[in-house]
Amino acid sequence: MLFYVAIFIIFNFTRINAVSDMSDETCETLPSEIHLTKEEYDELGRLQRTCNGEIAVNKCEGSCKSQVQPSVITPTGFLKECYCCRESFLRERIVTLTHCYDPDGVRLTGEGNNALDVKLREPAECKCFKCGDFSR
Protein backbone atom coordinates (compact mmCIF):
# COMPACT_ATOMS: atom_id res chain seq x y z
CA MET A 1 0.00 0.00 0.00
CA LEU A 2 2.85 2.39 0.82
CA PHE A 3 4.38 1.67 -2.61
CA TYR A 4 1.15 2.72 -4.39
CA VAL A 5 0.94 5.92 -2.34
CA ALA A 6 4.54 6.79 -3.29
CA ILE A 7 3.80 6.23 -7.01
CA PHE A 8 0.65 8.36 -6.73
CA ILE A 9 2.56 11.21 -5.07
CA ILE A 10 5.39 11.03 -7.66
CA PHE A 11 2.85 10.85 -10.51
CA ASN A 12 0.90 13.91 -9.32
CA PHE A 13 4.07 15.90 -8.58
CA THR A 14 5.39 15.13 -12.08
CA ARG A 15 2.11 16.19 -13.72
CA ILE A 16 1.93 19.45 -11.77
CA ASN A 17 5.52 20.34 -12.72
CA ALA A 18 4.96 19.41 -16.38
CA VAL A 19 1.86 21.60 -16.64
CA SER A 20 3.50 24.56 -14.94
CA ASP A 21 6.64 24.30 -17.11
CA MET A 22 4.80 24.34 -20.47
CA SER A 23 5.51 28.07 -20.67
CA ASP A 24 9.21 27.17 -21.08
CA GLU A 25 8.60 26.04 -24.67
CA THR A 26 10.65 28.08 -27.12
CA CYS A 27 9.46 26.75 -30.49
CA GLU A 28 9.73 29.68 -32.91
CA THR A 29 9.73 30.54 -36.59
CA LEU A 30 13.10 32.19 -37.18
CA PRO A 31 14.71 33.82 -40.23
CA SER A 32 17.68 31.97 -41.68
CA GLU A 33 19.85 31.98 -44.78
CA ILE A 34 20.83 29.01 -46.92
CA HIS A 35 23.06 28.53 -49.94
CA LEU A 36 20.95 26.97 -52.70
CA THR A 37 22.30 25.33 -55.86
CA LYS A 38 20.13 24.10 -58.73
CA GLU A 39 21.34 22.31 -61.86
CA GLU A 40 19.45 22.15 -65.16
CA TYR A 41 19.87 19.27 -67.61
CA ASP A 42 18.70 18.80 -71.19
CA GLU A 43 16.54 15.90 -72.38
CA LEU A 44 19.66 13.73 -72.90
CA GLY A 45 20.83 14.30 -69.34
CA ARG A 46 23.64 16.75 -70.15
CA LEU A 47 24.28 19.60 -67.74
CA GLN A 48 23.12 22.90 -69.26
CA ARG A 49 23.71 25.32 -66.38
CA THR A 50 24.19 25.53 -62.65
CA CYS A 51 22.65 28.42 -60.67
CA ASN A 52 23.14 29.30 -57.03
CA GLY A 53 22.56 32.02 -54.48
CA GLU A 54 22.09 32.92 -50.84
CA ILE A 55 18.39 32.70 -49.98
CA ALA A 56 16.59 34.01 -46.89
CA VAL A 57 14.18 31.37 -45.55
CA ASN A 58 12.33 30.61 -42.34
CA LYS A 59 13.20 27.69 -40.07
CA CYS A 60 11.69 26.08 -36.98
CA GLU A 61 13.91 26.13 -33.94
CA GLY A 62 13.46 25.72 -30.22
CA SER A 63 12.52 23.24 -27.56
CA CYS A 64 9.29 21.65 -26.44
CA LYS A 65 8.46 20.07 -23.12
CA SER A 66 8.54 16.29 -23.00
CA GLN A 67 8.03 14.11 -19.98
CA VAL A 68 8.39 10.62 -18.60
CA GLN A 69 6.18 9.51 -15.75
CA PRO A 70 5.58 6.23 -13.91
CA SER A 71 2.75 4.12 -15.28
CA VAL A 72 1.23 0.83 -14.18
CA ILE A 73 -0.46 0.47 -17.59
CA THR A 74 2.54 0.50 -19.96
CA PRO A 75 4.87 -2.54 -20.30
CA THR A 76 7.97 -0.46 -19.51
CA GLY A 77 6.46 1.02 -16.36
CA PHE A 78 6.79 4.56 -17.76
CA LEU A 79 4.58 6.74 -19.90
CA LYS A 80 6.65 8.85 -22.30
CA GLU A 81 5.31 11.97 -23.96
CA CYS A 82 7.72 13.52 -26.43
CA TYR A 83 7.09 16.81 -28.27
CA CYS A 84 9.14 18.30 -31.12
CA CYS A 85 9.35 21.79 -32.64
CA ARG A 86 8.33 21.71 -36.31
CA GLU A 87 6.27 23.50 -38.94
CA SER A 88 2.52 23.77 -38.52
CA PHE A 89 2.08 25.51 -41.87
CA LEU A 90 4.27 25.62 -44.98
CA ARG A 91 4.27 28.53 -47.41
CA GLU A 92 5.22 28.03 -51.04
CA ARG A 93 7.22 30.76 -52.75
CA ILE A 94 9.45 31.32 -55.74
CA VAL A 95 13.03 32.51 -55.26
CA THR A 96 15.41 33.67 -57.98
CA LEU A 97 18.98 32.36 -58.19
CA THR A 98 21.11 35.01 -59.86
CA HIS A 99 24.54 33.38 -60.21
CA CYS A 100 24.37 31.01 -63.19
CA TYR A 101 27.25 29.18 -64.90
CA ASP A 102 27.62 26.97 -67.95
CA PRO A 103 29.10 23.43 -67.67
CA ASP A 104 32.63 24.89 -68.02
CA GLY A 105 32.14 27.25 -65.07
CA VAL A 106 31.79 30.43 -67.17
CA ARG A 107 29.25 32.86 -65.74
CA LEU A 108 26.14 33.32 -67.90
CA THR A 109 25.21 36.93 -68.55
CA GLY A 110 22.79 36.65 -71.48
CA GLU A 111 19.14 37.50 -70.93
CA GLY A 112 17.15 34.37 -70.04
CA ASN A 113 20.18 32.35 -68.89
CA ASN A 114 21.55 34.55 -66.11
CA ALA A 115 18.82 33.72 -63.54
CA LEU A 116 16.69 30.76 -62.52
CA ASP A 117 13.40 30.71 -60.59
CA VAL A 118 13.06 27.90 -58.04
CA LYS A 119 9.91 26.95 -56.13
CA LEU A 120 10.42 26.09 -52.45
CA ARG A 121 8.31 25.50 -49.36
CA GLU A 122 9.29 27.02 -46.04
CA PRO A 123 7.74 27.12 -42.57
CA ALA A 124 5.30 29.99 -42.09
CA GLU A 125 4.45 28.92 -38.52
CA CYS A 126 6.10 26.54 -36.07
CA LYS A 127 4.79 24.87 -32.92
CA CYS A 128 5.23 21.82 -30.71
CA PHE A 129 3.80 18.52 -32.00
CA LYS A 130 3.82 15.06 -30.52
CA CYS A 131 6.92 13.31 -31.89
CA GLY A 132 6.19 10.89 -34.72
CA ASP A 133 2.75 12.44 -35.36
CA PHE A 134 2.74 13.10 -39.12
CA SER A 135 -1.04 13.08 -39.52
CA ARG A 136 -1.33 16.89 -39.59
From TrEMBL:
Keywords, sorted A to Z: Signal
Family annotation (Gene3D superfamilies): Cystine-knot cytokines
Residues spanning the signal sequence: 1-18
GO term, biological process aspect, one: G protein-coupled receptor signaling pathway
GO molecular function: G protein-coupled receptor binding; neuropeptide hormone activity
GO CC, alphabetical: bursicon neuropeptide hormone complex
Superkingdom: Eukaryota
InterPro entries in UniProt: Bursicon_suB, Cystine-knot_cytokine
PANTHER family from the UniProt entry: PARTNER OF BURSICON
Name by which UniProt lists this protein: Partner of bursicon
Organism (species): Phyllotreta striolata
